[in-house]
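User: Hi! I'm working on a homework problem where we have to compare a predicted structure to a textbook description. Could you give me the structure for the chain below?
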Amino acid sequence: MRKGLSILCGLGIWVLAASPLYAGGIINKSNQSADYMRTLNRSAATDYPDIAVYNPAGIMQMENGAYAKLDVLYFDKDYSNTIPNNAFPPFNQPFGKLSQDKASVIPAFFAVFKQERWAGFFAFTIPAGGGELEYNDGSARTVKLASGIAQGLNRGATGGATNALPYNLIASQREKVKDSVAYGFSLGGSYAINKMWSVAAAARYVYSTREFDGEATIASSAGLAPPLPLRLDVKEDDGGLGGYFGVNFAPNDRLNTALTFYTSTDIKYEREVKKDTLLPNGLPLSIATGFRDGSTIQDDIPGQLGFGISYKFLPQLNVALNYVLYLEKSATIQTFSGEGNSWDLGITAEYTFSPQWKASIGYLHTDIKLPDDQQIEQPEEPKLDADTFGAGVVFSPTPKWDITFGGAYVNYKDVTDDLDIKYDKTVWNLSAGVTWKFF
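Assistant: Happy to help. Predicted structure tokens:
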């Protein structure tokens, strides 16, 4: 029976890394500021304090002074798993499309002090995770969980006939990601070597916590066994220290280029079982499925390499290109196997109408390097290729205040795995931010 349960749940809790991801790799998330949302492109930016995490060396192109920026990002998320009737024996019931539409709100804060040839900066962002999910009718995860348990019980009751009664249906199921957020705290400095070249370095500490609560009730259509409710609530957390480095090259007032490199951040989660189920054979569900209290699993935040170039074709018109490579092959990610190095590629155009108003539009393509058959390891938040379209405005009522409004729509490419499960999602975003220049 232990083997049957293990087949069912094996890595079952890895819904825990769920996030409103649309720009980034398998774990990393790039959508960390309101100005990113309106442009989808900040790798060569030199304007607002959020570049502390996108192009820290570019801070030296800002005016002298002290800045603070507060952003709020709202994500409307529609995720779904469409499951064929026969994907998980002994069940053969019409699960159909199982979905969730719980929204997420993500904050961000940035502070910069720049003086002549040097600058210091601080940033609080959400570099991974950052979202709750609620599948009120269950997901591919809970169906898979219930399938393994039913098979294990049926083998014990019927001498090895895994498709036989008593257990052959799911009477009810639900799943909730109660917490999934990685808090990133960055502190660093920038230095201007000369008017054209500047460099930056920063340390970043990430504390990540995530909690999964799922349940399913298996039953016998012939009434040969009483319904068996199953529930498991697991929380885990860990913190890790990493760093990032940047260089910015501005040969003239029209062209700017930048390169920023992030190191990998080691995150080795330790589990705490908060709620459990005692199975008929006397084993707790957490132990039977390999999620014992105090056990660990490692899901690093991979390093990344970002390159950007911007050019002012007109004094009012700035166009920028952005490329980010996520170094997943160099990180330890135990949730999945066979992953590659995902990447983003985007372009944005920004037009300044007056000292008070400017507007931007942006496009971003995200290519996720993950085999389709790995989606089942985290079906609640599938990792899908995407095309993102963003736009927004900045209103500057005085030289000391800048107010950002942005929005984006993400068009994902759905995939179907070798179990014929279809994974799909849609994300809308609205963002707002305010920047204050103290002096």
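For your comparison, note the following. The longest strand covers residues 169-192. The chain has one domain: 2-437. Good luck with the assignment!
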